[in-house]
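The data are quoted verbatim for reference:
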Amino acid sequence: MEHIIRPVQAGDWEKSKELRLTALLDPVASIAFLDTYDKAVVQPDSYWQERARASSEACRVITFVAEAPDGSWDGTVTVLVEDPEAEEGAVFGGAPSVPQTHIVGVFVRPERRGSGLIQALFDAAVEWSWALSEPRVERIRLFVHEDNGRAMAVYRKAGFEPTGTTIPMQGDPDAKEYELALARPAA
């Protein structure tokens, strides 16, 4: 693969903003993301700079990108640390019972889908999660909308399995989000 998978750095905020806005224009964005293009596009530069800075510190959140040889970005995935001992407040899908990470913001440009980028991004997210020592992550989870079959297939191919947990879709309580998880491999 010609792309480099790497963490977002603080100075990457403009590319991060462009890719996020592109993702929010995707036809399934309304069921794939908890954000909208209309809300995101009006955010000040300081908002995007803070997102990139937080990722560059890789403490509680990290974003990985797939960077092409020409410097353009073709995909992204974000990993959030969820620790039952932490006092961060509400967590999407409920408070964790074990230390875990939560994958969000998954996107690959349509013209790059099927190229292996999503698996490479997931590999980076999983490797980073298992490498954490504080907290020592026991599982990695994500949520997928019941109508997002394409994403469900991608996540299952990456090894994530349904846990049986469902939650109502934010903003549409008649729709469901399924939790999928990947357990830490036995040592």
Residues 54 and 61 are 7 Å apart (CA to CA). The first strand starts at residue 4 and ends at 7. The chain has six helices and seven strands.
